[in-house]
């Protein structure tokens, strides 16, 4: 009974901090804080999406960066065609991710364990090399966006603050959606499938259908993150969907706590902040980050969320 109000308090504190950050940046006269925070929010959305299937469905996907790339290239391709509206960019990204996730998920979910991991990785790499081959969009070098997405025909998102609050609104909305999904009957069946798929079949549920649906929803959420990343960087390249990026997303989820949606958001936030701070100290910052990650995981199997619960 104590965990629920504690988690609600933690969520309120974290999202309030995100909400007031631009004002803190103004007080410190440091506009870069808003830029890096927008990047953090985009990755938090992607980590949230991955945790939906990893933490609740037990599906370890090593190809989730593919959906980041689909979202990012939706912005680039439509913008090149003269379509700059953010709503259309999001719709195209979600549609593209849904199609890709349905096809790849229907195949991948017929396996399990290490085979599932490798197949998701293989599909992501196929997507990576597909976009590398698109010479019209810079191939391996990528393409620079002429402008950010527009809202109702207006270049509102050219303002870093407006882009930040748009990304924040999407994060908050998707977090609430993910919470609703995990607390619903669908979410309980998905969790039951993770624990004992044989028993779920015995009582009349089809694990494959629930896992595939969750896989598609997760891919669509990650594509939204890709749209935000493309706008934040004004640049799109196949590197968005490289397997290293998928590994980073898994690390963020593990760092924050698998099976804890707020932990996924916190994990992405802390991981990227550590990356920024440690890179200032030394060019060998990945080594220090690895040591910190190992210490957190050894001390708490639930990552940062587990450490937080011990302190409250």
Automatic annotation (TrEMBL):
Its main location: membrane. The keyword DNA damage does not apply. It comes from the Bacteria. It is a multi-pass membrane protein. Signal peptide: none annotated. Keywords: Cell membrane, Membrane, Transmembrane, Transmembrane helix. It is found in: Cell membrane. The keyword Transmembrane helix applies. The chain crosses the membrane at residues 37-58, 65-83, 89-107, 114-137, 162-181, 208-229, 249-273, 285-301. PANTHER family: ABC TRANSPORTER ATP-BINDING PROTEIN (PTHR30482:SF17), HIGH-AFFINITY BRANCHED-CHAIN AMINO ACID TRANSPORT SYSTEM PERMEASE (PTHR30482). This is Branched-chain amino acid ABC transporter permease. It comes from Paracoccus onchidii. The lineage of its organism: Bacteria, Pseudomonadati, Pseudomonadota, Alphaproteobacteria, Rhodobacterales.
